[in-house]
Specification:
There is one protein chain. This protein has 586 residues and is α/β, with parallel strands linked by helices. It folds into three domains: 34-346, Glycosidases (TIM Barrel, Alpha-Beta Barrel); 363-434, Golgi alpha-mannosidase II (Immunoglobulin-like); 453-583, Galactose-binding domain-like (Jelly Rolls, Sandwich). Helix content is 19%, strand content 25%. It has an eight-stranded parallel sheet, sandwiched between helices. β15 and β16 form a beta hairpin. The chain has helices spanning 33-46, 76-79, 84-87, 101-110, 138-141, 148-159, 191-208, 226-239, 297-310, 328-344; strands spanning 48-52, 63-64, 67-68, 115-121, 162-167, 215-218, 244-245, 257-258, 275-279, 312-318, 363-368, 371-376, 383-386, 393-398, 407-410, 413-417, 428-434, 453-457, 462-464, 469-471, 476-478, 489-492, 500-509, 518-524, 532-537, 546-555, 561-566, 575-583. It is globular and about 70 Å long. The structure holds ligand H79. Ligand H79 binds next to loops.
Length: 586
């Protein structure tokens, strides 16, 4: 499988492969695949981790020269084409006196996270650790003059949290031979000079100065060659054989895969190995003072259950301030998730993915031998019928409180009798104990079979854009603003679940005076012509939800994204509940 270089959205999911060819150009020890396999198994069980984006960009915090800068905060240098000479002056102001490794790692622990990954060096090139390889680092270039990563890594070890580093291996806007800065430097670069001068020495530093690293998280591999990537991998594995490497190292040389940023596959996805969803709590990774677009705990707990049921891990980001404070709103949200996990962790950690395919947004299921954990995300009323579950269910009970749930056979599945109201405001976990270890699933309902008629609810997509909002009461998204060269959008990630022609229906509601705008649905991937496209007009619905045919869409296994957006601003207030794809018979 080929890696599609991470650009606007990295939609490629990369094969996890444990047996890597050893580098021929370096005289290093061969890898120990056993150690990698063991580390991967442990990583799979962790399920939930904390991502931390922290660097000089926390000082401008989304504003440059008094002007608000749209987009992700850590990209401000690039977006504003800030010269190195100017940006690097930020280091002289960086003094995170409120940083506390104990507090940060304790927050991760309180949130129920099992691992932590922090930016050692992002694309701006600034090392947030003590580096002899480059003076452009937090010890040598800031008034703080200390190495926060020493404290943080030790605090994580103390609390039994796995610790890993993010490292931008190709993009480096501070270096003439790094990639990305075409405003200070000529186009021509020598990546090898950059690698040997900065990357390899710094990788050695981060692998030798902070104890055991559970993983290195590379990003935007871009233009490094296969040999350069192999050398990078060999170096990591020779220094720490158990350190995992993510797929964004490039050239299929990772141990496990990332989905695109904030991208959750629409179906269970287990055939290409372990994967992880890197995701934001608001609309940025690095701190932005004006970004208050926080996801709510219900959304995040639901996403955790959704991701784990599909086979992934969830790496959820916080962006601390330049003072070293994790925004209080982030802290509150994370602690709320942690309280839910205190009670419901059994249904997340160490579980196996759903044995059933994904049909709607009522529930997701995770499993352990002999047990199914139904995560009820949208309360279905007095009864919940699970079609296609053929196992005998011996007993069922709520993970909260342990009260028994009445069960009976119904059709080819099971019906549970539920109380009038949700047992948990975010995700009520119903445990079903079955006969035998593995569940028996009826034909057509298995995780490897995609339903012929597939409802893609808005909640399952990525709501792209700062103005877009989700409403739980109507299960719909709105705020589809159109900009000159961009749009807010609802984006789905099929990850090989779809192949062929599909009849498309859109379920939406629109006030009569907001109707008439045009929408499109495009199935595509970066750098290629669309695989399929339909276009339509938002009709008056008198604020009622209606389902309208929209045409026929071709989707291929390589299709990275299915994007719904508007072509103008006329119907920006439309509420989109779902897009339904029915496999065309012809
Ligand atoms: O570290 C986080 C991001 O900074 C990084 N990956 C996550 C984990 C990332 N690198 N590249 N991208 C994400 C894609 C970025 C695309 C954009 Fe842009 C940056 C969109 C807007 C700003 C590039 C510059 C494309 C348009 C302007």
């Amino acid at each position: 499988m080929k890696y599609i270089a991470s650009g606007v959205i990295c939609a490629a999911l990369i094969l996890a492969s444990c047996s890597q060819p050893n580098s021929t150009s370096t005289a290093r020890q061969p890898e120990d695949p056993q150690k990698t396999a063991e580390a991967l198994k442990h990583f799979d069980q962790n399920k939930f981790g904390m991502f931390i984006h922290w660097g000089l960009y926390a000082i401008p915090a989304g504003e440059w020269k008094g002007k608000y800068v749209r987009g992700i905060g850590e990209w401000i240098m690039f977006r504003e084409k800030i010269p190195v000479a100017e940006y690097s002056k930020l280091a002289g102001e960086f003094n995170p006196v409120k940083f506390s490794g104990a507090e940060w790692s304790q927050l991760a622990k309180d949130a129920g996270m099992k691992y932590l990954v922090i930016t050692s060096k992002h694309h701006d090139g600034f090392a947030m650790f003590a580096s002899k390889a480059s003076k452009y680092n937090i010890v040598d270039a800031t008034p703080y003059a200390k190495d926060p990563m020493k404290e943080l890594s030790a605090a994580c070890a103390e609390r039994g949290l796995d610790f890993g580093f993010y490292y931008s291996q190709d993009q480096d806007w501070h270096e003439a031979n790094g990639r990305g800065n075409n405003w200070d430097f000529p186009e021509k670069r020598d990546a090898q000079v950059y690698l040997e001068g900065k990357v390899f020495p710094q990788i050695r530093e981060i692998l030798t100065q902070y104890g055991k690293l559970s993983l290195i998280w590379f990003d935007t591999p871009g233009l490094l060659s296969d040999q350069q990537t192999a050398d990078l991998r060999a170096m990591v594995k020779s220094l720490q054989p158990s350190c995992l490497i993510n797929s964004r190292i490039g050239h299929d040389r990772g141990d496990y895969a990332q989905t695109g940023d904030n991208a959750i596959p629409i179906q269970v996805y287990t055939k290409d190995g372990k994967w992880e969803v890197p995701a934001t709590l608001n609309d940025t990774w690095g701190y932005k003072k004006n970004d208050q677009h926080w996801k709510d705990p219900r959304d995040l707990i639901g996403k955790l259950a959704d991701i784990v049921s599909k086979g992934g891990n969830y790496l959820l980001n916080v962006g601390p301030t330049a003072e070293g404070v994790i925004p209080p709103a982030s802290q509150d949200i994370l602690r709320t998730i942690g309280k839910w996990l205190d009670v419901n962790g059994e249904s997340i950690y160490g579980t196996n993915p759903s044995p059933m395919n994904i049909r709607d947004i009522t529930w997701r299921v995770t499993t352990k031998p002999g047990k199914l954990y139904f995560h009820i995300l949208n309360w279905p009323g007095a009864r919940m019928r699970v079609d296609g579950l053929e196992s005998e269910v011996k007993r069922a009970y709520w993970l909260t409180g342990g009260a028994a749930v009445p069960i009976k056979k119904a059709g080819n599945g099971i019906e549970f009798t539920l109380p009038a109201k949700a047992v948990d405001p975010y995700d009520s976990v119903l445990v079903a104990e079955i006969d035998g270890d593995a569940p028996k699933i009826a034909a057509g309902y298995g995780a490897d079979e995609v339903p012929a008629k597939l409802d893609l609810y808005a909640w399952v997509g990525h709501l792209r854009g700062e103005e877009i909002r989700y409403d739980w009461a109507t299960q719909s998204a709105s705020g589809f603003k159109k900009f000159e060269n961009a749009s807010n959008a609802l984006v789905y990630f099929p990850y090989k679940a779809l192949d062929g022609d599909y009849d498309v229906e859109v379920t939406y509601s629109c006030a009569n005076d907001a109707a008439g705008g045009k929408f499109q649905i495009v199935a595509g991937r970066r750098g290629a012509n669309p695989d399929g496209r339909v276009e339509g007009t938002i009709e008056k619905t008198g604020n009622q939800f209606v389902t309208r045919k929209a045409g026929r869409l071709t989707v291929r296994p390589q299709t990275g994204q299915i994007i719904f957006d508007l072509l103008d601003d006329k119907s920006a207030a439309v509420k989109i509940r779902k897009i339904t794809l029915s496999r065309a018979s012809s």
